[in-house]
């Protein structure tokens, strides 16, 4: 009995050794696989966390890109408002330019009127010069008449002296006196006629001189009035020219401001276009990166799901391994009790 029991125990131990050795190797292999799968699960978890962080960063970058797009849209609105203001300034400049054209037209009309007035003034001056020339001619005629009168007076004085000489020699020259008296009477008649004619001429010359003087005074007054009106018009013209120069300066300043506004608008439009293109490219890059990251995350999630399934299988195998381990422990305790 003892030997049979010993042989049975030896056979049992041999059977246990033959059965338990592969089971222990399988359990060790499965534990190694379980550790590898746990390590892979940890790596997958870390990768998933890293992918989640990348996704959050991508979402943050997408939010920043959206904010940048909104900022660019606000800048675009500001540029549009600036363009509208520039358009309003341009309309104002056009209205100012139209008023300046009207002022130019009015100034041209005033200049034409001034030229007409100046021409009439020159014509009046020419008339005055002609009147002065005629007056000088009349004065020369008056001087000649005065010279004739003086010559007649000298002739009368000479005649009186001769008559006195004739009277002194009357006793000696009675025959000659009668003849001399006849000649003297004729000379006196001729002299009186000449004196009357010279007086009439002098009176007519004085009347003509008075008329010329009155005409000259009237022309001079008219010229003075026209010169005064011309001075007033010149003052008004200078004031209008000053106003026009101020308006031209304002127009030049407005043109410069409009040119600067147009340059700024062009720069803003160019910067807006560049910023919009950059934002669009950046947004597209973010969208592409986000899509790629989402694809990676989905791939990692699929891999994680597969590993979780494998882990669940491994956990189930672990439970089985624990049951086998318990069986092995029980067998070991039985072996110990049998020995």
Reported by name, the CATH topology is: Helix Hairpins
In which range does the helix fraction lie?
Answer: over 70%
- Arithmetic mean pLDDT: 67
Instruction: Report the span from N to C terminus.
Output: 16 Å
- Taken together, the total number of domains comes to 1
Helix/strand order, N-terminal first: HH
Approximately what portion of the residues adopt beta-strand conformation?
Answer: under 5%
Architecture in CATH? Orthogonal Bundle
Total number of strands = 0
Q: Which stretches are poorly predicted, pLDDT < 50 over at least 5 residues?
A: none
| Radius of gyration computed on alpha carbons | 69 Å
Number of helices: 2
Coiled coil: 27-54, 188-310
Keywords: Coiled coil
Descriptive report:
The protein is mostly helical. It has helices at 2-168, 174-338. It has a single domain (2-338), classed as Orthogonal Bundle (Helix Hairpins). The chain contains 2 helices and no strands. The mean pLDDT is 67.
Give the key terms:
mainly alpha; 2 helices; rod-shaped; Helix Hairpins; 98% helix
């Amino acid at each position: 009995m003892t030997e049979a029991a010993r042989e049975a125990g030896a056979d049992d131990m041999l059977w246990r050794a033959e059965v338990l050795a592969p089971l222990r190797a399988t359990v060790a292999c499965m534990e190694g696989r379980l550790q590898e799968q746990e390590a892979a699960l940890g790596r997958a978890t870390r990768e998933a966390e890293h992918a989640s962080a990348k996704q959050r960063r991508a979402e943050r970058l997408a939010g920043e890109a959206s904010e940048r797009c909104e900022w660019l849209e606000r800048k675009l609105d500001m540029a549009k408002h600036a363009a509208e203001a520039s358009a309003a300034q341009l309309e104002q400049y056009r209205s100012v330019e139209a008023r300046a054209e009207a002022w130019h037209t009015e100034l041209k009309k005033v200049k034409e009127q001034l030229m007409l007035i100046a021409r009439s003034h020159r014509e009046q001056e020419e008339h005055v010069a002609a009147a002065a020339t005629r007056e000088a001619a009349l004065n020369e005629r008056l001087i000649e008449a005065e010279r004739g009168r003086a010559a007649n007076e000298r002739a009368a004085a000479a005649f009186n002296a001769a008559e006195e000489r004739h009277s002194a020699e009357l006793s000696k020259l009675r025959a000659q006196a009668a003849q001399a008296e006849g000649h003297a009477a004729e000379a006196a008649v001729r002299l009186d006629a000449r004196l009357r004619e010279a007086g009439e001429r002098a009176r007519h010359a004085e009347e003509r001189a008075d008329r010329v003087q009155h005409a000259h005074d009237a022309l001079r007054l008219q010229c003075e009035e026209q010169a005064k009106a011309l001075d007033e018009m010149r003052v008004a013209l200078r004031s209008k020219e000053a106003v026009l120069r101020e308006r031209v300066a304002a127009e030049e300043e407005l043109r410069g401001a409009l040119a600067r506004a147009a340059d700024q608008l062009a720069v803003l439009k160019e910067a807006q276009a560049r910023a919009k293109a950059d934002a669009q490219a950046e947004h597209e890059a973010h969208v592409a990166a986000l899509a790629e990251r989402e694809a990676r995350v989905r791939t990692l999630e699929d891999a994680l799901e597969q590993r979780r399934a494998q882990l669940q299988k491994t956990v189930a195998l672990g439970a089985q391994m624990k049951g086998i381990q318990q069986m092995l422990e029980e067998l070991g305790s039985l072996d110990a009790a049998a020995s």
